[in-house]
Amino acid sequence: MSWELLLWLLALGTLLALVVQLLRFLRADGDLTLLWAEWQGRRPEWELTDVVVWVTGASSGIGEELAYQLSKLGVSLVLSARRAHELERVKRRCLENGNLKGKDILVLPLDLADRSSHEEATKTVLQEFGKIDILVNNGGVSQRSLFMDTNVDVYKELIEINYLGTVSLTKCVLPHMIERKQGKIVIVSSLLGIISVPLSGGYCASKHALRVRLPKLNSDRTDLNVYMGDLAMTERGHWNWGFFSTLQMELDAYPGVTVSNICPGPVISNIVKNSLTGEVTKTLGSEADQSHKMATSRCVRLMLICMANDLKEVWIAEQPFLLMAYLWQYMPTWAWWLTNKLGKKRIENFKSGVASRCGYDMLIQKRNDRFQHL
């Protein structure tokens, strides 16, 4: 075999490998590290047994499904949310479908915005089970409203629940984990903690706060344009770590205590239906077609894989949302251009009453059409 033929075969093999990887990415529903862990990593069935897991936001959506899947692993569960009757419903189903007894599940109503109650709630869990192995900060609320139509109290509520509530509960639980030198802090953030879209400014801000640290406005740099320039540098990929990324570094002396930041994209749930609008007292109250969203069961399965493998950050989303996350991370100029185009369509749909649909739907339809021919 001549060298020339060998080089041609090598080039052809490389090209074929790239095509295969591209097709895999087009069908991917998680970032590459997460999917590798699903294939070659530790299984939740091995790692997440005989542990105590505290799940906030457990009354619906991702939190509810997480409770069901965890119950099948034989863990002890603490279910928290504001609606006690919904938590009781979730508990009954866990007992029906899982491997648990009544004593293995504690229903603990909790309001993340009531930070004064978090210390007592933590004591209640420790009195009941003696330990907390995993805290899943899943509780939160979303938003659907234009900035000019939104009361500032809405933004305050979003920060109180999504950011400060999560920080407060973590601060109550963490000393126990440090004392034991083991434990997992899991934050269910959002892809909107990486990217930004119109109509969800307050929600994006609360999720970015968990992940991205904004530059400080120093006393000798009072020009707003300079500050916005610093923000632009942050968005162009310079790592400005947020709260829980900082916490990961501060816990370096305790390798048994891990922090995982999970960023789901659109997932079937009631989060849009329960979104705040222009006033704190008003929610959207309606939900459009969710066929373009990821199945909740698949999202939770990938979350469990993240927890079993102690991954620091994962992105869970189908295309084109996953692609948008990669663009924002590595090609922000292109991401800005594309997001502006799709954002205009999202605003138009919102104003016409199509509350939860956006410009991404056109990309989704094109994706589905292509896949039917693959």
From TrEMBL:
Q: Which InterPro entries match?
A: NAD(P)-bd_dom_sf, SDR_fam, SDR_family_member_7
Gene3D superfamilies from the UniProt entry: NAD(P)-binding Rossmann-like Domain (3.40.50.720)
What organism does the UniProt record list as the source? Answer: Camelus dromedarius
Please, which domain of life does this record's source organism belong to?
Answer: Eukaryota
Protein name, per record: Dehydrogenase/reductase SDR family member 7
What's one Pfam family the UniProt record gives for this protein?
adh_short
Cross-referenced CDD domains: 11beta-HSD1_like_SDR_c
